[in-house]
What we know:
By secondary structure, this protein is mainly alpha-helical.
Amino acid sequence: MGYSGIAGVLALLLTIWALVGILQSGADGTTKLIWVLVVILLPIVGFVLWYLMGPGSKALPGRGTSG
């Protein structure tokens, strides 16, 4: 398996991880659907966006808190 094969497997694993996280999140159905579409249509970029900004994300401190 070459580098492209490893990259493909890694992209698939990250996509699956993101999809599981999205579906298990407490977000409403519309938000989940949007994130699922983003992650499926843009696998690597979608994963990064979901990780940084998605429902339940802890990557950005203070996000989602009120006061």
